[in-house]
Amino acid sequence: MKAIRVERTGGPEALRLTDVPSPVPAEGQVRVRVEAAGLNFIDVYQRTGLYPVPLPATPGLEGAGTVLALGPDVKGLAIGDRVAWANAPGSYAEEVVAPVERLVKVPAGVDGRAAAAVLLQGMTAHYLVETVYPLEPGDACLVHAAAGGVGLLLVQMAKRKGARVFATVSTEEKATLARRAGADSVILYTQQDFAAEVNRLTGGRGVEVVYDSVGQSTFDKGFECLALRGTMALFGQSSGVVPPVSPSALAKGSFFLTRPTLFHYTADRASLERRAGDVLGQVAAGELEVRIGRTFPLAAAAEAHRALEGRQTTGKVLLIP
Predict the structure, then answer these.
(1) Half-sphere exposure (CA, 13 Å, Cβ side) for 233?
(2) pTM reported for the whole predicted model
(3) What's the pLDDT at 10?
(4) Distance CA 95, CA 25 (A)
C-alpha cells in the first residue's frame, strides 16, 4: 500500500510517499481502509521534532474509513463497518491498523469525509467548552484562530451553550466564516489590538475564558482579556512555544492556567464514546456545521502541510488516499 513516511525530522519536504507492506492487525486491533485522513497541527509538531516520535514514522492520528479485517479477540465491530478515529498513528496511508478501543462507529447521516474532518477537532472543542471551562449562559469567551478547524467548531459549541463569543481572525474572509459560525464580535488581530477590543466591548470586564490554540504570539496579551478568576486554556501553539510562566503572573486576577490535551480527556472508553457520540450526533442532526476547507491527494501531503502552516486554510484540511 501507499503511505506517507518521515525518515528524519524537518520541513514539509520530509513527507514522502512510499510503498510499504499492508498492516496486519494483532490482538485487539482492526485494519481499516482509509477514506480520508485529517490534518492537525500535532502532525506538524511531530514532523518537525517538536513532539518527538520514533522514526521512521507515518504521520496522522485522525481519519475515517471501512473495516477490512479484524484481529483476534475483537468484539463490537464487523468487516464493512464504517468507523472513525482521533488517535490512531499512521493515518496518512491507504490502510491503517488501530486498537479497537480507539475506534467509534460513524452514524447514518454522516459521510466519511465529514467524520474524518470533525472527530479530533470536534472532541477538542467539546472538552474545552464542556469540561476545561464549562460555559454557562451569559458567560463570555475569546476564541483565537476562530476560522480554523477547531475554531469554527468552538464558536458553534460556545453559542449552543449560550455564551457571548469574541473571535480573532487574520482576514476579512475568515471574519465572514467566524460570523457565520455565530461569533458575536470578530476582531482582525492583524489590524486591531485584540485585548483592547475585548476590554472595550465588555466595558473593561473581560471574558471568563480564553481558548488559545495559537500560543506564543497571543498568550501574554490574552491575560489582559480575562475577567477576575478567569481561565486561560492554552491548547495549541501554532505560532510557537510559549515561554515559561511565573505563577505570580496569575495573581493579577487570580487567574487559572491550564495546558490540556484531547487524549487526556478521552483517556477512557466511556469518555471517548460520550464525546464522539455528542459530536457525531450533532453533525448527523444538522446542529453542527463541518467546514472542509481543502482536500489534497495523499501524495500531496507536503503541499497540505505548507498550506496549513502558512495559515492559507480555513476549516478542516483532509488527505484523500
Answers:
(1) 24
(2) 0.90
(3) 97
(4) 11
pLDDT per residue as tens digits for the range 295-310? 999 999 999 999 999 8
pLDDT beneath 70, residues of the chain: none
Q: What is the pLDDT of residue 313?
A: 82
Fold that domain 2-119+268-320 belongs to in CATH: Quinone Oxidoreductase; Chain A, domain 1 (3.90.180)
Name which of 94, 5, 86 is nearest 53 in CA terms: 5
Residue 274's pLDDT is: 97
pLDDT recorded at residue 225: 98
pLDDT single digits (tens) 163-191: 999 999 999 999 999 999 999 999 999 89
Superfamily holding 136-259: NAD(P)-binding Rossmann-like Domain (3.40.50.720)
Whole-angstrom distance, CA of residue 59 vs CA of residue 67 = 20
- Omega into 137 within 30° of 0, i.e. cis? no
Taking alpha carbons only, the member of 265, 269, 247, 266 closest to residue 256 is 247
Give the whole-angstrom CA distance, residue 79 versus residue 86.
20
Where does the chain show beta strands of DSSP type E? 2-6, 15-19, 29-38, 62-70, 82-85, 95-99, 103-105, 140-143, 164-169, 185-188, 207-212, 226-234, 256-258, 292-297, 316-320
Each domain of the chain, given as residue ranges in start order, spans: 2-119+268-320, 136-259
Q: Report the C-alpha gap between 47 and 301 in whole angstroms.
A: 12
CA dist., res. 309 & res. 212, Å (int): 17
Question: Which residues have C-beta within 8 Å of that of residue 56, sequence separation ≥ 6?
Answer: 5, 6, 7
Q: How far is CA 190 from the centre of its chain?
A: 23
